[in-house]
Design goal:
single chain; about 325 residues; alpha/beta; Rossmann fold; 2 domains; 6-stranded mixed beta sheet; 4-stranded parallel beta sheet; about 40% helix; about 15% strand; binds pyridoxal-5'-phosphate
Length: about 325
């Protein structure tokens, strides 16, 4: 029997919900805007990473792994969901996080510890330094007789990105054809899968500053998937002072979603994605009468771990 390429970690499909009050507040028609609730997918607070982990965990189990090793920012949602997936599958988890240990574990870090993951602080090492630190840690575990499986940064690989090709098909089945799928771009796998599934012209990806070269990152994943997508629609205007920053447009966007729909976004990813949609409607890149699906990709624990979260209500 062939080994499975997916191991179920959530209940599918996630809901696709209307957001008429938010639509009107953005300047769209009431039935133009729908929210794909991938924030409800999977254990431990949920989020988009669980779709990719269904694939990478299948690879890990097929390789006989007994511990997952991955990396991320201190408030990485991917690291938290890797810890949750590991717990569910009876594997260990080692999370190599950039920076130094903060005083007190908040947000995702609190959940990482609760889920039983080992946390290793890599220092301010940059993207290449983080990859090196993961391999050092995997080597250390192997030397102890463990069988580590490295899950890439953000869980994004060409095979993991296939999970969002499936998500694209799920969205197409759930309602009328979307003209625009709005998504936050971090490590790029979610965007790559959606582009492969829907076509580049229908995916509006909002860069968060998580990688240095978003077009190259997504292009590399697409090439690995054997997809020649053509020009991507990337918005690069929502990064502000960098990935950890909470920008004014994001404060406004997070408040707007909360106060029109009771929908809570996060300051790092989904808040930037909505701020990008606000800007796209202003630019007339997205127009009333066109159908928009906004991907709520999760991240709520990151809100509770954000040092400037109080500014959302101040
Ligand atoms: C990681 C993440 C994203 C971006 O997904 P990538 O596949 O890394 O581009 C979007 N939203 C949230 C909440 C995330 O944690």
């Amino acid at each position: 029997m062939p080994l499975p390429t997916r191991i179920p970690l959530a209940t599918w499909p996630t809901p696709l919900e209307p957001a008429p009050r938010l639509a009107v507040a953005l300047g769209l028609a009431a039935d133009d805007l729908w929210v794909k609730r991938d924030d409800l997918a999977g254990p431990a607070g949920g989020g988009n990473k669980i779709r990719k982990l269904e694939r990478t965990c299948a690879e890990a189990l097929a390789a006989g792994a007994d511990v997952l090793v991955t990396s991320g920012a201190p408030q990485s949602n991917h690291a938290r969901l890797t810890a949750a997936a590991a717990a569910r599958l009876g594997l260990g988890a080692t999370l190599v996080l950039e920076g130094d240990a903060p005083d007190g574990d908040r947000g995702n870090l609190l959940l990482d510890r609760l889920l039983g993951a080992a946390v290793v602080w890599a220092g301010e090492v940059g993207a290449d330094g983080l990859v090196a630190a993961v391999h050092t840690e995997a080597g250390r575990l192997s030397a102890q007789g463990r069988r580590p499986h490295v899950v890439p940064f953000g869980g994004s690989s060409p095979s993991a990105a296939q999970a969002y090709v499936d998500a694209a098909a799920e969205i197409e089945e759930q309602g009328p054809r979307p003209d625009h799928l709005v998504v936050a771009l971090g490590s790029g796998g979610t965007t790559a899968g959606l582009v492969a599934g829907l076509g580049a012209e229908r995916v509006l990806a909002v860069h968060t500053g998580a990688v240095d070269d978003p077009a190259g990152t997504v292009g590399g994943l697409l090439a690995g998937m054997g997809v020649d997508a053509g020009p991507l629609r990337l918005r690069l205007d929502q990064v502000g002072d960098g990935y950890p920053a909470l920008t004014r447009p994001v404060v406004d966007a997070v408040r707007l979603a909360a106060r029109t729909e009771g929908l809570v976004l996060d300051p790092t990813y989904t808040g930037r994605a909505l701020a990008g949609l606000v800007a796209a409607v202003r630019d007339r890149d997205v127009r009333p009468g066109e159908r928009v699906v906004f991907l709520h990709s999760g991240g709520l624990p990151g809100l509770f771990g954000h040092p400037d979260a109080a500014r959302l209500v101040g």
